[in-house]
Amino acid sequence: MNLRNSRSVGACSLLNGIEKQDADSRRKRKIAEITQALNTTPVDVAVLRRMAISEGGLLTDEIRCKVWPRLLNIPVESIPEQLEEVQRENNKDYNQVLLDVQRSLRRFPPGMPDEQREGLQEELIDIILRVLHKNPQLHYYQGYHDIVVTFLLVLGECLATALVEKLSTHHLRDFMDPTMDNTKHILNYLMPIIERVNPDVYDFMQQAEVGTIFALSWLITWFGHVLADFRHVVRLYDFFLACHPLMPIYFAAVIVLYREEEVLDCECDMAMLHHLLSQIPQDLPYETLISRAGDLFVQFPPSELAKEATQQHSLESPASTSEDVQSARRRRKEQLRPPQQQQQRNPVEVQRSALAVVQPTARRIMRLAVMGLTVALGAAALAMVNSALEWAPKLDLLFP
Amino acid sequence: MTDAESSLEFSTSLTSSLLPPPRTRIFKIIVIGDSGVGKTCLTYRFCAGKFPDKTEATIGVDFREKVIEIDGEKIKVQLWDTAGQERFRKSMVQHYYRNVHAVVFVYDVTSAASFRSLPAWIEECRQHALGQEVPRILVGNKCDLRHAAQVSTELAQQFADAHSMPLFETSAKNPHGAEDGSHNHSDHVEAIFMTVAHKLKSQKPLVLSQPAVGNTVTLRRQDEGEEPRANWGCNCWRS
Ligand SMILES: Nc1nc2c(ncn2[C@@H]2O[C@H](COP(=O)(O)OP(=O)(O)OP(=O)(O)O)[C@@H](O)[C@H]2O)c(=O)[nH]1
Ligand SMILES: [Mg+2]
């Protein structure tokens, strides 16, 4: 894979001028399409998904305020204008949240006056505590605040509260378990994706025993913790909100693969490689990487990787004798096959069954260009929010 | 790692070690303790030589490195700065306990809770099968906030003795000594990590002398002629 070469560079200023006009008119066209999708009854969520994924994403925060709730299937009318009071003192997570929010200065625009920032930090604490209080099954993790701050800055406190709550019970649900076991399981999807695309990089990483923790903060903050430029963060959020909850792990894989040369040039050593990988370059070609991640998702859907991800898990267990390995594997299998009830609330599991439904159209999807592919996965992601039944006819609408 | 400054610092140290003498020795030190005690600030202070102006919550494990020289030998000190929140402990950072040469336990002298967590951190180490021969030290951080101290030196010293660890009280923010302006040019944070490095280099078993509680040792810089190794035995430094 050579993503670098796929970036064309405008040769002369005349060309640049034309390109700019082109970009301007594309942008105008996109805004018009989004407006139209928002104004049809019912709102055309499929189009909005496509817009969120395709080049440039949702373009402005103003549009995001209107479209993000739709991507999460939240009826805007239902959002209360009054927020509930927050009990700070009796909250078990208050101290940790406070500590993390106080240290989140980098997440706010550099020029923002202190007073305004401090006000927003208070709101940030309130949103987090409110959502946690209403959903006692959710557990706070360090990094959750990096996600919530993005919603706060784009949407304001009221809308942000509603969206964060929905997101926390869907896309982020696995991260908010009492333990991080499910999060670790999701990280286990990373290496199988890399192996499929570039076995050399995979072998190198395995040999260095680098592990996957370098991608932990990427995954559980949707890259909000590691990207300095807020515009890049919201662009990624457009993408992730429109997609399957596992998409961030595909995006993580794409970043590693994009850095193939650096990785292979690195000392084959856990520390060196961990350090190299955890340092995200700030000038990534986001649009290219986004469509690449969409490609990989369709080529290697989670259902196909699930088995290896599980094996990865048992390989990593610190069992020394083969007998230990065997029993560890058996134990893991049992853990990984949760009871039916639990399966339903696990996004990964839900999606696995949703993908089974997608199979008849899979062949056609394969033949579509990247854009077409990403439309398909946008539709697949819809299954997350709606039920699989509701979603199936929508796919027919997309591919008549 | 999001710490732009520390990455800058790191890349210079990487460049300077681009052509290391064959087989530079590496000392791998893991830094653990509750969230907010100052693990990131301490490791940053050692590697970059200053207090970071902004830190963020550590998610997972961050890595910092510094090349030092002991008796003419260049040694890479690798610091693994771990997340303090309990949920990250069990499954997440286990991988990074592998082949660790030394452990630094950190508590915050202004937080009794962070001190009370130490047994859990010691247990954590035990579960990761770190042998007794792996040197451990106890660091009480934020000594610049003495007025707000909740953990007395005596109490900390008792705990350290009970677990055969030397105790260091220091501050990542102001490791040069008292706020009253009295001059002590040595940087305790640097000295603490250097002491661990010396300990590892000498690879002699940890010898602990037991000076009277409250006995303050003024640490001089290495180039002032004192061998930091000799200080391993004194289990309390205060800034
Ligand atoms: N006054 C004072 N404040 C300190 C000192 N060291 C750290 N701090 C502050 O304590 C807070 C936490 O410091 P960190 O280094 O981020 O704590 P940590 O142990 O890495 O926390 P986690 O990453 O959450 O596990 C920050 O606001 C620091 O500015 C110190 O020596 N003195
Ligand atoms: Mg930290």
Automatic annotation (TrEMBL), chain A:
Chain ranges of the Rab-GAP TBC domain: 58-244
Region listing for Disordered, in residue ranges: 309-350
Signal sequence region: none
Record Gene3D superfamilies: 1.10.8.1310, Ypt/Rab-GAP domain of gyp1p, domain 3
Keyword Cytoplasm: no
Molecular function, one GO term: GTPase activator activity
Compositionally biased spans, kind Low complexity: 337-350
UniProt membrane topology term: Multi-pass membrane protein
UniProt keyword list: GTPase activation, Membrane, Transmembrane, Transmembrane helix
Intracellular or extracellular location(s): Membrane
Main location class: membrane
Protein name: TBC1 domain family member 20
Pfam families linked: RabGAP-TBC (PF00566)
GO cellular component terms given for this protein: endoplasmic reticulum membrane
Membrane spanning residue stretches: 239-258, 368-389
Listed InterPro entries: Rab-GAP-TBC_dom (IPR000195), Rab-GAP_TBC_sf (IPR035969), TBC20/Gyp8-like (IPR045913)
TrEMBL record, chain B:
Listed GO biological process terms: Rab protein signal transduction
Cell compartments where the protein resides: Endomembrane system
Entry EC no(s): 3.6.5.2
Major localization class: membrane
Enzyme class: hydrolase
Single GO term (MF): G protein activity
Protein name: small monomeric GTPase
